[in-house]
Amino acid sequence: MSLESIGWPNFSLGWQGIVVLVIFGVSLLIATYCTYAERVIAAFLQDRVGPDRAGPWGLAQPLADAVKLFTKEEFFPAGANKALFVFGPCLAMVTALMSSAVIPFGNSLKFGDTVVHLRGIDSNIGMLYVFGIVSLGVYGIMIGGWASNNKFSLLGAIRAASQNISYELAMGLALIAVLMMSGSLSLSTITLQQSSATGWHWGDIFAWNVFKQPLGFIIFLVCAFAETNRTPFDLPECETELVGGYHTEYSSMKMGLYLFSEYVNVFVATAIMSVLYFGGFNYPFQYEFLDFLQTKAGLSVDWAHNLFVLMGVVAMFAKIFTGIFFFMWVRWTLPRFRYDQLMRLGWTILIPLAIFNILLTGVLITTGIIPDLTIAVR
């Protein structure tokens, strides 16, 4: 019996609209509780007590923070452009959420004749879409910094723009090597190509791109820290030099939108890295698990497939949470770079290394050391 026969909408756009809303909701929820996780991890690394007052184990702390931000006084600095002052943080938040729409969090669920894809948009130019939206995100910071009518805010915004442009180049060049192997800009296709149905149980892990592109992954990882303005590259909001950088004049929920957009960007960056380099929703023993469900557990084909897919979703989020922990670990471990060190690293080290990686990948593909990738999925 299909879901349409019991009244559920029989149009893919309706299902995908629900999936998009769920993805946006999950992104916001994870961003909200990243603020809690950041405090807990910081407290652990600094050997002190973290949040423990709001709710059991401090779990209600993000909700208390949200109430505080919503109820604080709205403030507009003298001489500020009020429209752009509000538009800046809104643009930063919207672009951060839009980036998550093309990420495949899982394969497709089947309910009779109905197929539900666990991604918002199945685009064959998904990676270009992500880069385009990420490029727009810096305008939210630029607009907010300029509209504040504050020299520290403007300097922070200019830093953010130059930093993002510099590291987008190295990030894009690192990505080209992956695209040379996959031959596709679709994130779903890149994920499926990292699945191996070999007889060795751990074969799936060694099909991940991180083992074929270790240098490209390191470059992409460093650039991801710079693109999300995280320590040691948080110079746009460097408090020792710029008070608070581009959000110096912000308060209440406008300030909250900037802070939440940073955590959404961290979530999206770790999800993209999981897809590009760590197999996305693929996991070890996945085909053995599917065979077990179909043969020994005696489940129907659809239910066995759906459990197989849901386990992939769990694996995908496990990789994402590991990446988010790494971002927080680095923040509370490494000191902040100077701005000249940041620029020197980007232009004189990362970009030449990324170009070398492209040339090396071309040689390895031409000589057959890196085989052509083919889709191997059941």
Q: What is the helix tally?
A: 13
Structural class: mainly alpha
Q: What amount of the residues lies in strands?
A: under 5%
Distance between the termini: 23 Å
Largest sheet: 2 strands, antiparallel
Low-confidence stretches: 6-11, 374-378
Order of helices and strands: HHHEEHHHHHHHHHH
- The spatial strand order of the largest sheet comes to 1-2
Can you offer a commentary on this structure?
The chain has 378 residues and is mainly α. Helix content is 64%, strand content 2%. A two-stranded antiparallel sheet has the order 1-2.
Tags for this model:
378 residues, mainly alpha, 13 helices, 64% helix
Quick description:
With 378 residues, this protein is mainly α. It has helices at 12-45, 61-71, 82-98, 126-147, 151-182, 187-193, 203-206, 214-227, 239-242, 252-277, 286-296, 301-331, 339-366; strands spanning 108-111, 114-117.
List the helices and strands and how they pair.
Elements: H1 12-45, H2 61-71, H3 82-98, E1 108-111, E2 114-117, H4 126-147, H5 151-182, H6 187-193, H7 203-206, H8 214-227, H9 239-242, H10 252-277, H11 286-296, H12 301-331, H13 339-366
Antiparallel strand pairs: 1-2
